[in-house]
Design goal:
The complex is a heterodimer.
Chain A lengths: L3 E4 L2 E5 L4 E7 L4 E9 L5 E8 L4 E4 L2 E6 L4 E6 L8 E9 L8 E2 L3 E6 L1
Parallel strand pairs in A: 2-11
Antiparallel strand pairs in A: 1-3, 3-8, 4-5, 4-9, 6-7, 7-8, 9-10, 9-11
Chain B lengths: L3 E3 L3 E4 L5 E7 L5 E8 L3 E8 L6 E2 L6 E7 L2 E6 L8 E8 L14 E2 L3 E5 L1
Parallel strand pairs in B: 2-11
Antiparallel strand pairs in B: 1-3, 3-8, 4-5, 4-9, 5-6, 7-8, 9-10, 9-11
The chains are: A mainly beta, B mainly beta.
Chain lengths: 114, 119
């Protein structure tokens, strides 16, 4: 069974810092990997999706990389802002997964203070 | 704009009650999912459905059942609510289509969640 781990569990940084969130997965046979954002008490919003054949995806100040062979992904946030404060979740869709189910990590809770 | 709605944002029920959580999506998606989210445990898949009247157990189906009579609606049922089912419940939907292939671009779209408290 696919296991997804996110490190660190929580991160607190001052505004303006560049930061990296880490995600690892145990089975490298994946179709894609996604990063989601979750605000307190809300649902999840997809930020970036990387296909298994891709190395990275960028959206604004966010950059996600994927190293499938080593089972790792990173989410890079440039010039962090207080509005980036949220929980970030990583999820993989495995080749063995049934009909579109995802396997989620437990998330990194990010706080960016002014 | 894509939309997944859940019938209640907050719900308080008593132990032993039968509880219905409703989820509706307006994107004509084939796949629908129910998760629960608890501090320190992350998202755990309860049940999912890939078509009308079809369902598959997720990782923690015990104490739950589901119903999908129409494509747009997926209901989660707690037959006899217990205090350990106090949690945040999240519904999601996605296309099937290319979703199972290597060039999959599908993503899951989530509802706002239902915070259920069982007393």
């Amino acid at each position: 069974k696919q296991e997804v781990t996110q490190i660190p569990a929580a991160l607190s940084v001052p505004e303006g810092e560049n930061l990296v969130l880490n995600c690892s997965f145990t089975d490298s046979a994946i179709y894609n990997l996604q990063w989601f954002r979750q605000d307190p008490g809300k649902g999840l919003t997809s930020l970036l999706l990387i296909q298994s054949s891709q190395r990275e995806q960028t959206s604004g100040r966010l950059n996600a990389s994927l190293d499938k062979s080593s089972g790792r992904s990173t989410l890079y946030i440039a010039a962090s802002q207080p509005g980036d404060s949220a929980t970030y979740l990583c999820a993989v869709k495995g080749r063995g997964s049934t009909l579109g189910r995802l396997y989620f990590g437990r998330g990194t809770q990010l706080t960016v203070w002014p | 704009d894509v939309k997944v709605t859940q019938s209640s944002r907050y719900l308080v029920k008593r132990t032993g009650e039968k509880v219905f959580l409703e989820c509706v999506q307006d994107m004509d998606h084939e796949n629908m999912f129910w998760y629960r989210q608890d501090p320190g445990l992350g998202l755990r898949l309860i049940y999912f459905s890939y078509d009308v009247k079809m369902k598959e157990k997720g990782d923690i189906p015990e104490g739950y059942s589901v119903s999908r009579e129409k494509k747009e609606r997926f209901s989660l049922i707690l037959e006899s609510a217990s205090t350990n089912q106090t949690s945040m419940y999240l519904c999601a939907s996605s296309r099937r289509g290319l979703g199972s292939g290597p060039l999959s671009t599908d993503t899951q779209y989530f509802g706002p969640g239902t915070r259920l408290t069982v007393l």
